[in-house]
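Mods, move this if it's the wrong board.
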Amino acid sequence: MPRPVLVTAGATRNPIDSMRSITANSTGKTGISIAKRLLEAHMDCTLFGSNVALLQPHCPTSKLEFFSTRDLLQKMKVWILENPTGIVIHTAAVGDFELVEANAGKISSGQNITLSLQPTPKIVDQIKTWSANVSLISFKAAAPNTTPHDLEMIAGKQCTRTHSDLVFANVLGAIQTNILLYSPTEKQWFAKREDALQVLIDTVLDWG
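Not the wrong board. Structure tokens:
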């Protein structure tokens, strides 16, 4: 019986009011592609996606939409507690900030407003606390112009902090090239993103 896999894709939307939200520029294409390929390999794969991600072509049918950071956290926690030996591929761009108190109605336009933000819970830091037996692949997008040496340092810190089994790291502004797969025992560099994704898929299939 293959191990169940959870893939997250897209960006969270942390509300400002009933009409507006804080989000990130993430289409979810990477997560959708990973989920599709795992399903084609007959893995038991579930996708949690944003509204934008779930509109991508060839989106898998086994899916659930998420909204805010807290909503995604709760959905992931439930899935992991139900699948404590599963595999989590956490590609989603999770919002780091939320309003201290979102407006329940709609803020009138044509005025200056000041937003008071607070940090959101760090989902990736909690995954292994919900189940130490989950295998975790986390993603890290470093700031533009980050050097390869610094990317290794950033990926290593995330790997240690989150107890990730593998970190997929890249630099914003150059996400198709110079991809790093960082594990506690190995650092692999790839000139092309597709090559790194294929190794990620092969790794998950081996774990399954």
